[in-house]
Each structure stands twice: as C-alpha cells, then as structure tokens.
Design a protein that fits this description.
By secondary structure, the protein is an alpha/beta fold. It has an eight-stranded parallel β-sheet with strand order 7-6-5-4-3-2-1-8. Strand 6, helix 7 and strand 7 form a beta-alpha-beta unit. It is globular, with a radius of gyration of 16 Å.
Length: about 230
C-alpha cells in the first residue's frame, strides 16, 4: 500500500481497462503492468463477465466509476456508480473516487478503509490546469477525506500548465502520495517528467491507441524506462 511521499520509489504503471477488448488483451499479456484500473463506468455492461475473470489478471486492481463531469462514460448516475463500486470492492486493492463525489460516497470510503482498500481521491479537468493554489487546496481536501493517493489529471496544452503540475508534484507537504499527469498537447511529456519528479503512478493504455490525448501504452512506458 502506497502512503506518504517519496521521490525515490519507482513509479508504478497502471494499465487502464476500459473496454471488453482491453480486458481480453490484459488477460493475454505476458508482461503485465504493476496494477490494472477497471473503469466501471465503461464496463458496466460486461460486469458479470468481468467478475468471472478478474482473478486471472493476477495484479492489484484499482476500481473507479468516473463521474460524467470528469470524463466518465455513459452518463452513469451517482447511485449506479456507487452500486458498481460496492459490487467490485472485494476485488479491489484501491478505490478511486472523485473529490467532487467524496462527500456523497463518504460511507463507501469508510467501508474501503475498514477493508484495508487504499483510497485514491481524484480530480480531473479536461479543459485546463487550474492555478497551483487551487491544486494545493484540492490536495488538502483529498487528504481530509482520507486519501492515500491524490490523483490529478488536467489539460496541459501549454508549458505554463505543465509547470503548474510540476510545482504541485515537487511541493507535496500533505502526507499523501501524488499521482499527477497531463492530457493534451504536452500530455505525453508530463507522463515522462512528473513520475521522475515524484508522481507515484503512471496510467497507460492496454491497447496501442487510446482516446486519451497524451496517454501512452504500457509498451511505450516500458520503452522509455519508466516501468518494469
């Protein structure tokens, strides 16, 4: 379980499973990433199939059901997202809940803690990167919700936006690990730079192509020497 902050620990690679095709490819991978993330908002239609094969993934699992306001698929309402997270909680090593949903899902986060499931509190902004002051305030809020990891994914189309994420990563004072990444024109650069500055997780696609601008594949991450 990752807690606290260390720039010396090797960042861990998270393979994102967001479709039935991703799931099948993950099951066939010879060299699997450190963890897999299950995007339950994308996978709800194959929930029964997933439950049967999850043990075969043989890696720690992050479960999340993304809020539609932060890039979640299928406009899944809060109650259904909560139900999906509850259903898969016993399979999870980490649960990821958006900061905007943390109050509404406070009870679920408390249950996760009793089950020794790590809590990732996340913030996604697909349009821009807020100021460093706003990002730091959100990190403090995440910590107040019991986060083990605060995940930030924001649009980085300019060096200034990327610089804000770098500032956040290198000035961590909240006793919570940070997983920080950009999307957009400088997204790929961010996913090389920020892990070397202290970001603890690198999210990567299972497939070679991805809809997330700037997200590399697991193979590309390895080729850059960032993953095992």
């Amino acid at each position: 379980m990752m807690a606290g902050h260390s720039t010396k620990r090797r960042p861990q690679v998270v393979g994102v499973i967001a479709s039935a095709a991703d799931l099948q490819k993950a099951l066939r991978m010879r060299r699997r990433p450190d963890l897999f993330e299950l995007r339950l908002d994308c996978l709800a239609a194959i929930a029964n199939q997933m439950e049967r094969v999850l043990p075969k993934l043989r890696r720690p699992l992050i479960i999340t059901a993304r809020d539609p306001h932060e890039g979640g698929a299928n406009k899944v309402p809060l109650r259904q997202r909560r139900d999906l997270l509850v259903r898969f909680l016993n399979h999870a090593d980490y649960i990821d809940v958006e900061l905007r949903s943390a109050d509404a899902l406070r009870g679920l986060l408390a249950i996760a803690k009793t089950k020794h499931v790590g809590r990732i509190i996340s913030f996604h902004n697909l349009k821009s990167t807020p100021s460093v002051a706003i990002l730091k305030a959100k990190a403090q809020q995440a910590r107040s919700h019991g986060a083990n990891i605060f995940k930030v994914a924001t649009r980085t189309d300019t060096p200034m936006e990327l610089g804000r994420l770098l500032d956040l990563t290198t000035s961590n004072r909240w006793n919570v690990s940070l997983a920080v990444m950009g999307i957009g024109k400088l997204g790929a650069v961010s996913r090389v730079l920020l892990p070397r500055a202290g970001s603890v997780l690198i999210y990567a696609s299972i497939a070679a192509a991805t809809d997330v601008e700037g997200q590399m594949s697991v193979e590309q991450v390895r080729a850059l020497g960032l993953g095992r």
